[in-house]
């Protein structure tokens, strides 16, 4: 069975590419573009410019088909800069150091050291690698070949960046939509569990489960922040940026994290306290419980009618807090729950 699963995995992956416009399809598009960029770079270098053995041209082209257009263009500048420094190091070592072995070691050491400068980004390793290749191939003493290596790298990198920018430039809307769906569902589930604890229908141990749920939501918030970062970056210099998904709904869900954590801390404290005055009375708990359940529905669907109901329930809680009844006046717990609940309502309304 395990062998059959391994053999069929590629076909399953291709099936998802055909059926679902998700990560697999985006990966296939980028892979195809990288292959096309490598072929174009090779043809231009060999057939047009007549460069001898221009292996760096397709190599650079492949690496410049990045996840965003902005990264491709930034990578082009970084890679050309890194290769230029590597060429200069190799040229200097080839002229000044008679021993190839010594020159190789010094060029690699100096190249990797210089390449660690953050301005080179991920291309910094090219400083040492370029110098190493030129020294080991015996090109370091031939200025024409050094110039060829620099030209083919710049050419390949430029072709890779242009292909990525012009041919279906990558967008990350699908990642954004998936992160929004996951986070909205997790927040909704957590609000419903909190509502059950507030109403008193759950054992006190349920407070521990709430904190476990909070850790899960916090992890999803981190994923959501990454998705927003990728989406915003993908808009830079992107010809298809008008088709990119809006990130405001997900950013709004992320903003719920702070009041949600405060609310769960207040509910847990009230549920676990041995002092009755800290826990709201039964009627007040019912109002808060309904508010949290309605907020869960709003988080998942954004239903305006449910938002109106949330506002009405918040007003009722405010009324309970100022009404001099025996049930409420001694309740610290209701006041502690009311403020973060109000903030949740306000931030969901901002969507």
TrEMBL record:
Annotated TM spans: 31-49, 85-114, 120-138
Record Pfam families: ArAE_1
Record keywords, A-Z: Cell membrane, Membrane, Transmembrane, Transmembrane helix
Key word Transmembrane present: yes
Subcellular compartments: Cell membrane
InterPro entries: ArAE_1
Membrane topology field: Multi-pass membrane protein
Tagged with keyword Ubl conjugation: no
GO cellular component, one term: plasma membrane
Main location per the UniProt record: membrane
UniProt protein name: FUSC family protein
């Amino acid at each position: 069975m395990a062998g059959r699963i391994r053999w069929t995995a590629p076909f399953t992956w291709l099936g998802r590419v055909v059926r679902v416009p998700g990560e697999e399809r985006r990966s296939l598009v980028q892979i195809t573009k990288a292959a096309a960029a490598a072929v174009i770079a090779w043809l231009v270098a060999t057939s047009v410019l007549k460069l001898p053995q221009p292996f760096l041209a397709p190599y650079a082209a492949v690496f410049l088909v990045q996840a965003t257009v902005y990264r491709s263009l930034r990578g082009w500048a970084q890679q050309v800069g890194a290769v230029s420094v590597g060429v200069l190091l190799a040229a200097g070592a080839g002229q000044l150091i008679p021993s190839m072995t010594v020159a190789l070691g010094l060029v690699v050491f100096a190249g990797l050291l210089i390449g660690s400068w953050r301005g080179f980004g991920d291309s910094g390793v090219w400083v040492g690698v370029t110098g190493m290749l030129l020294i080991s191939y015996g090109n370091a003493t031939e200025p024409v070949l050094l110039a060829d290596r620099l030209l083919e790298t710049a050419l390949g990198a430029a072709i890779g960046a242009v292909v990525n920018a012009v041919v279906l430039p990558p967008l990350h809307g699908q990642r954004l939509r998936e992160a929004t769906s996951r986070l909205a569902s997790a927040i909704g589930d957590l609000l419903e569990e909190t509502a059950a604890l507030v109403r008193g229908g759950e054992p006190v141990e349920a407070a521990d489960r709430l904190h476990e749920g909070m850790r899960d939501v916090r992890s999803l918030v981190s994923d959501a922040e990454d998705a927003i970062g990728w989406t915003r970056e993908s808009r830079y210099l992107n010809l298809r940026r008008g088709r990119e998904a809006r990130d405001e709904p997900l950013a709004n869900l992320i903003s719920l994290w702070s009041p949600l954590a405060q609310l769960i801390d207040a509910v847990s404290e009230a549920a676990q306290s041995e002092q009755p005055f800290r826990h709201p009375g039964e009627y007040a708990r019912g109002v808060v419980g309904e508010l949290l359940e309605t907020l869960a529905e709003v988080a998942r669907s954004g239903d305006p009618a449910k938002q109106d109901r949330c506002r009405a329930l918040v007003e009722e809680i405010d009324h309970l807090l100022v009404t001099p009844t025996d049930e409420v006046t001694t309740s610290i717990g209701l006041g502690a729950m009311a403020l973060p609940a109000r903030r949740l309502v306000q931030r969901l309304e901002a969507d």
